[in-house]
Input
Amino acid sequence: MSTVSHISLVNFAADSGLLRPLDVALGRMVAEIEMKATHTPPTSEQTGLLIFTTALVSQALAQGHLCLNLSELAGKPVWPGNQRLQQWLQETQKPWPSYPPLNEWKQTLQACGQVADAEKFGSQSEDWSTGLLCLDQTDRLYLSRFYEAELTLADHFQRLQASYFDLPAPQLADYLKRYFADTDNNLEGDNRQALAALSASVHGFCTIVGGPGTGKTTTVTKILAMLIELNSGSKPLRIALSAPTGKAAARLMESIAKARSRIPASEEIKNLIPANASTLHRLLKVRPDGKGFRHHRENPLALDVLLIDEVSMVDVLLMRSVLEALPPNCRLILLGDSDQLASVEAGNVLDDVCRYRDSFGLSKKFHDLASQTGLSPNLSADPAPPELTDRVIRLTQSYRFTADSGIGHLARSVNEGHGSEAWGILQDQTRSDIHWQLLPQGEPIPTSVLKPALEAYEKYLKADSVTQALVYFDHYRILCAIKEGYYGVETLNQLVEQHLQRRGLIPRGGSGTVGHYRGRPVMITHNDYRTQLFNGDIGLVWPEANGSLKAWFTDDRGEVRSIPLYRLPRHETVYAMTIHKSQGSEFNHCTVVMPDPEQTLLTRELLYTGITRAKEQVSLWGNKVSLMAAVQRKTHRMSGLAERLWRVKQDKVETPSQSQNDSSTSSGEQLDLW
Output
């Protein structure tokens, strides 16, 4: 029985949707360039393998990976278990195809002029040729643009790690005790918030991670006050607060304002802590043509301290742009939850930064400094840890969820991979903050299930003003893992809209501008620099005083502004939204809808992120099989960034197997690949 050729496999994958048209077009383009550029044309099988491999790299990018790890795939079945492929193979009487053996795969790629050697990347040697692809020493294949981005980003982080501020221990001890001591004026030895403050004070770069309610924002507000006091006598520190999205920036601004009012600092110090936060795009100042930013290496930001919240949402290319725009000696403080979903675009920067934190203690130098300031961290003094180990502090104590909190217990059990424990919590009817709703597998959602959602949305629709309505609308949200299907965003939005119409809360068929009506919630799905509305921004269609409809949004300064409906960028109705889009937001009550268990998008990180969007109550709709599948399915993104940052060898890396039949999680067709 003859094997399937790579050309045939690519053609089938293109016809059946296993590969996107963009993936296949890129593969064919690279092969065409290769054939024109070489004196010895490749064989048809070599050409087919080049097309197939390039298409896989493109597909991997759409799924959030930075590269394709050949060693993880070599010799294994292609798209295992895919029913469409199985049927085609039966019809053509072909055996199930496998990826090539590693050495054979590498040799074919290394013979191609379009596959650059990473060891010579960017060099000026005569045997160096720039290729659209790049193969590194650890058998990872990149599009060259993303290899260069990973390399540059790692260099920027190494530069930041070299920055150290030698401050006197007695002075640091006084500040730590004042800001972090308990009500009895005692500084707990293993106070992680104080340890994070110490790290941020002496290091030019610090990452503070922790789950919801662990006090990240309170901690960083105290850190900013400390830095301002440590800088007294000099020019006032230029501080900027930022986040990836407008919603996250608004939340950061609100949290900082609350924390600022409670910290033990003078009014003068409090007033020097910024009151506003901006999106990263606004901070870097997007050029009007959308091509790059005004702030970059040659025109850096005028800052002394940059704080970025919700870093899990920041992709590799955006983080590189941020670090390139930082001036020398500017402190960088990153905040986030490394257990949440990774960015929609390529990379998982926060996870890479935190990847090996639990494998090392603290350096002896930093451990000694902590002891001199009154701390005794429950982290050993490691004889020779990576530099990054002192600059990543994980907060573990939750102040939002009490010991008997159902949300807290559920989130923890999901995050730790304990599916049976999570199921038991959902079945515990004594917990008032969690609710389980069984959904029939593969069937439409029953009308009775929607009743709580309709009641929640009724409040904002009956609001007296758009400002009040925007606040009420954020009290509740339906969060979905997928966009299509019975349990997807599109279906849920249509169902909610139909039932609200039946209740007389919204008009049938829209009014005024086609498709719009009073109270319609809209989410922007495309960045628009003219209106300063960005992908993920949410607003409401609401009438002005004269009755004409406009779209109203809360900007990253907390102010409400209106946009004429004809100027709205691409948008969609948003009674329900994907969990990905909900990152950076919090709701008093949210409903998380789980799809059928075979959906590979349903992962542990996705479910954890959805659950932790709730502040007071969470409802889960689904079935036990889907729950258990989600808890066991952990996200793994192929990248070499963690190894570069921590300077560990590949044999230290633990990488779970990654199926190549994952659905694309990209928010769009990544046309700007180069």
Remarks:
- Residues 44-62 form the longest helix (19 residues).
- The CA atoms of residues 16 and 36 lie 30 Å apart.
- The two ends are 40 Å apart (CA to CA).
- Residues 651-674 have pLDDT under 50 and may be disordered.
